Amino acid sequence: MNYKTHLATTFAVSLPYMTSNDALTVGSLSLLAVGAVFPDIDEPNSYIGRRLTGVSHSFKSIFGHRGLTHSIVGLLLMGAGAYALAEAFGFSENLAFCFCLGYFAHLVEDSFSKKGISWLQPLSKKRFQSGFNLIYYSTGSIVEQLIFILSILAILYHFSPLEFGTLLPVSLEGWLSRLFD
């Protein structure tokens, strides 16, 4: 899944939680976005990998793509790091939680790819495909594009009660509510 789809899908599934818990801030959205792309640090050609080239090449040579960073152990290690940084710099633990939420969403999203992920790395390299090989996407495919579009529509629908519709030349609220009700 490319980074835009990871971001859109992660935001679509996370925004209801964030707004219901008064956690919708620039900081929380930023950390959610970083978490949503961070597992791909093990791929030098990824969005984050191109920005952290040395780190990305090191991760890929040690763990391979969709290795440790795409596992529960990777989530726990990176999450512990995020909480430690929040503690050290006096930031809210909510920011670390948003990073972890984005990271976990990325793993779930990748588990629906055709190849799946190795949730149990480094204990096992067995890949799990969450859609039981019936529901899946391939990176760059029409299915991924559809996931992206549906995620954007879900985000727009989520924000429609916040009266952003007055900024648009066409009222999306009625159209989107018919799509999702």
Explain what this protein looks like in three dimensions.
- This protein is 61% helix and 0% strand.
- With 181 residues, the chain is an all-alpha fold.
- The chain has one domain (3-179).
- Helix 1 (3-20) crosses helix 6.
- The chain starts with a helix and ends with a helix.
Question: What brief labels describe this structure?
Answer:
mainly alpha, globular, 181 residues, 8 helices
Short recap of the structure:
The protein has 181 residues and is mainly alpha-helical. It is built from eight helices and no strands.
Present the secondary structure layout:
Layout: H1 3-20, H2 26-37, H3 47-51, H4 53-63, H5 72-89, H6 93-111, H7 142-159, H8 172-180
Query: Roughly how many Å apart are the termini?
Result: 27 Å
Give the H and E element order.
HHHHHHHH
* Largest sheet composition: none
Low-confidence stretches: 164-170
Whole-number total of structural domains: 1
Q: What's the total count of β strands?
A: 0
Strand content: under 5%
Structural class: mainly alpha
Helicity range of the residues?
55-70%
Shape: globular
Figure out the total of helices: 8
Gyration radius, to the nearest Å?
17 Å
